[in-house]
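Crash report, auto-generated. Payload:
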Amino acid sequence: MRPEFTSSSSSSSPTDRRLSALVRHLATSSPMMEFQTTVTFSPTSGFYGDSVFSHVVRAPEDPILGVTVAYNKDPSPVKLNLGVGAYRTEEGKPLVLNVVRKAEQMLVNDRSRVKEYLPIVGLADFNELSAKLIFGADSPAIRENRVTTVQCLSGTGSLRVGAEFLARHYHQRPIYIPQPTWGNHPKIFTLSGLSVKTYRYYDPATRGLNFQGLLEDLGSAPSGSIVLLHACAHNPTGVDPTLQQWEQIRRLMRSKALLPFFDSAYQGFASGSLDADAMSVRMFVADGGECFVAQSYAKNMGLNGERVGALSVVCKTADVASKVESQLKLVIRPMFSNPPIHGASIVATILKDRNMYNEWTIELKAMADRIISMRQKLFDALRARGTPGDWSHIIKQIGMFTFTGLNSKQVAFMTKEYHIYMTADGRISMAGLSSKTVPHLADAIHAAVSRMS
Amino acid sequence: MASSVLSLPSATPSASLSSYEINKGKLNLGNTSLCFNKEKTNPFIKTKSFGRISMVLTSNVSRFEGITMAPPDPILGVSEAFKADNHELKLNLGVGAYRTEELKPYVLNVVKKYLPIEGLAAFNKVTAELLFGADNPVIKKQRVATVQGLSGTGSLRLAAALIERYFPGAKVLISSPTWGNHKNIFNDAGVPWSEYRYYDPKTVGLDFEGMIADIKAASDGSFILLHGCAHNPTGIDPTPEQWGIIADVIQEKNHIPFFDIAYQGFASGSLDADAASVRMFVARGMEVIAAQSYSKNLGLYAERIGAINVVCSSPDAAGRVKSQLKRIARPMYSNPPVHGARIVANIVGDSALFKEWNAEMEMMAGRIKNVRHKLFDSLSSKDKSGKDWSFVLKQIGMFSFTGLNKVQCDNMTNKWHVYMTKDGRISLAGLSLAKCEYLADAIIDSYHNVS
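Recovered output after restart:
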C-alpha cells in the first residue's frame, strides 16, 4: 500500500519535505509516480524556502579548543594558557626544532625531489625507521618480518586505521579504554565501528594509578578483547604504571589473549629517553605476542601540523603480517588514498642520518627536561606557600600533562580571578608554563584550594 | 570493493573462543561453533588440565590467521606491475599523474618558489574563490562551508560521512563508469549508491538520454555525483547545453548536485572555463557540494591537499554544516596536514604566482592536447579499416577511454608493454609525442587482432 504524502509546496515545512523525500525512497515505484504534481520550486534553491541542511545542528565546540578560544578573548596581561597540549618554550612560543628546519631545508634544496603519490602504505623509509624507533633496531619481530607498518595521519589517523581494520576483521571484539583517557579516543573507536568499554585507571584519592581496579577490570574482560594502552605519559593524568606493574599487566593480558593497542604519542618526550619511553611496548613484543601500535611525531618532533604518524601491527608470522598489510590498504584507499609526504620525509631524513638523529635526541631531551623542571618548580612553589594538600603527584606524574586534582569549581575560580585557562577536569599542560609564570599559577592554586573546596 | 571483503572466521576460530569457554569452566559439546572435537585435533592448541581447571597455553597461531590477502588496487597496482617490467619500450599509461615529454614527473615552478604562510584559513578562502570565482555572491554572502580535506579522496569521504549522518537512506548516483575509488568511498562511509548511464560504447561518447532518464528515475532528494570537468575515466564531458539540462532535471527532482573537481585547469587549460559547470549550478541558486583536489593541477599529489565545499542557501546553514564537517574529520585524523595548504594559499593568494600558475597550467593542458592530436594522426594514418578515431580528440583531460576491452588491454600489456587500467583507460599525461606512433601500433593491433 503506497503511503500518502504531499508533494512539495511552499506550504509544507522542511521537515515534511524531508520526510516526503525519505518516504519516496522507501515506497515502491509505480506508474502513479509519474503523475505527481510537478514541483514548482526547488528546496535546494537559495531563493526559495529552506536549506536542505536545515536540520543540521551546530556541532559543539571541541572542549579543549574552547579553552584556547576563551583564552584568546581574555585581555588580561597575566593570562596563562595551560589547556593547549602543544610544547611551548620558556618564552611561551611554539618551537620548531633546529634539526627539523635543517631537514626541511635539505628537502627544499634537493631539486631531484618530486611530489608524486606515495604508495598507499606511505614512505617506505619512514615506515621502516618508525618501526625501529619504537620496537628497537634489533627487534626480532622486525628481523623476522612479522611487523607491518603503514604511514598514517599522526596518532589520530593511526588509531583510526587500526580500529577500522579491527572492526572488520576481529570478530566484533570490544575495545577497553582507560578511565579517563584522551577525549578523542572514544569517538575514534566508536566511529570505526568498535564497541567501547572502560577499565579503571586513575585514582583520585591518591592522584595515582588504581592498579587493583585496572587488574580487576582487565581480568574480567572477555578473552580476546582489545585493550588501549598509553605507552608512556598517560594523557590526561600523567600517571604511568611502573615497569613492574607493566609486567603484571602484560602477564594478565597474555593469559587472557587480550590484544594490546598501544597509543605512543610521547616517545622520548616523557623521560627524555627514547628507549626508556618504549619499554612498555617492547616488553609486549619480546614475549612473541601480537599487538597494535599507533605512533605520533606531533610532539616529539614538533610536527603537529604536518600530521605524521605510523600504525604498526606485530603479528605471529610474516605471512599474516603481509596479509594484514594488504587489508590495511583497503581501509586507507577509500579514506585518503595515500598519506602526505612532507612530514614523513622530514622524519625519515632525521632518523636515517646519524648526526641529525643525535641532534634530535639532544633537542628532545631539552624539551623533556624543561617540562620536568617546571614540575619541580611548581611543586617547590606550592610547598613554599604552604598550600594545603599533598602536591607530590606533580613531580610523580610524567609527560606533558598534570592532573592537578582541582575540581571544576576551583578551576572556574582560577580562570575568573587569575586568568588561568585549563580544562575543567583539572588538567594542566606543563608545556605551557615557564619559570616566570610558575609563581602566578602557584598563587592561583593556593587561593583556589584555600578559599574553595 | 572494501564492502565485499568479509571477515572470514579465522583458521582456528576455536583457538581463542575455546580458551574462553574453557576458562569459564564450561564445555558446550552441543555448540557447533565451538566444536570441542575440532579442538582436540587442533595442533595449535595445547591444553592442560589441573583437576577442574583447564588452562590453555598461549596459542601459536595468529588471531589474524584467517585474513585473506587483499587484491592489489586496480589503478595503483598497474604502476607496480609497470615497475617490475624490464622491457625497454614499456609505457605506463596507468596512473593519472602528469609527465613531461621526457616522461618525468613535473614539479611546477610556482611550487618550488613557495614561502610558507600562516594558516589554513587562508587556504579555505582561496580554494573557494578559485572554484566559485572570487566575486561570486555566494562567497560574499558567506554561504559556502569550506573545509580542507585530504585531496579529492579525503574531501569526498568527509562529504560521504556527512550524507550518511544527515541524510540517512539517501542514495548517491554515480556515473557508469566512474573513478574506481568512488564506490569504495561510499561503501566505507555506509552510503548506498547506484549508477546512472554515462558512457556509450557504440559512440565512444556520452549516453545523454540514458543519463537524464536515470537521474529522473532516482528518488527525489538523491545526491548526483558529477565530474566537474575531464570525466575520469572516459574523458567525455557534457556540453554546456547538456549541463543546463542536467541542472534542470536535478532541480525538478530536488536532487543535490555533488561535484568532484579533480582537474580544474587541466581540461581546457583555463581554470575559470573548467569551473563553468559548477558555477552554472551555483548561479541558479542551487545548494551544491563540491570536492576539490590539487593533486594534478598543482602537481601536489603527495601532499594530499584538497577541500570540500558545501554551498548552502544561508550563511547560518553553512556555519552549521562546516562545524559538522570538522566534527567528522576529528576522529579521522584530527586536523589536515598544513604543508600543502600553505603552498596552495601562497600561490593562489599572490597575483604574480597565480599568473605563473595559469601559464604552467596552460602548458600542461597544452601538452596533453598536442599528444591527443599526434595520437589521433598516428591512428588515422596507420589504421586502414576506416574506424573513427576522432573520440581521441573529442575527449578531454588526462584520460581517454579507448574502447578496448579487458582482453585487448591484456594484449596491450603482455605484447606491447603498455600499462593501462583494464577498463580501457589510458592516461595521456603519461604519453610523449615520441611514443605516439608506438602506442598507435599497439592500439590498432589490440583492437583488430584480439577480441
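Post-recovery validation: Chain A touches chain B through 91 residues (CB under 8 Å).
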